Amino acid sequence: MFKSILIKDTTREERIRIVNQALWDACGTECEFCSGCDNRGGGRVDSIYQPYIDGILEIREINAQFRAPLVRG
Predict the structure, then answer these.
(1) CA–CA gap between residue 59 and residue 49 (Å, rounded)
(2) What burial letters (b/e) apply to 48-64, b meaning 16+ CB within 10 Å?
(3) For residues 19 and 14, what is the distance between their CA atoms, to the nearest angstrom?
(4) What angle do CA 25, 31, 33 make, to 5 degrees?
(5) pTM higher than 0.90, yes or no?
(6) Deepest of 39, 49, 62, 65, by most Cβ within 10 A of its Cβ?
(7) What sign has the CA pseudo-torsion 24, 27, 31, 37?
(8) CA-CA distance, 60 to 43, in Å (whole number)?
(9) What is the pLDDT along the chain (73 residues), one digit of tens a residue?
(10) Is residue 18 within 8 Å of residue 10, measured between CB atoms?
């Protein structure tokens, strides 16, 4: 059965596991000592998803920030 990943439905510890598992599934490697996301310009994973872990922003809101097109002047 699918469990919600919304902040209101999870604990901080669950959100940490959700982020770690999703990144493991996406990359196939653990995040510890990895700088893959930082190399792609997203910054360190712990800083990218920290607002979700802290209960401030949903994952979809964080991901949308990185999909937004850059404005060039």
Answers:
(1) 7
(2) bbebbbeeebebeebee
(3) 9
(4) 150
(5) no
(6) 49
(7) negative
(8) 17
(9) 668 999 999 999 999 999 888 877 666 666 565 655 555 555 566 678 899 999 999 999 988 887 766 566 5
(10) yes
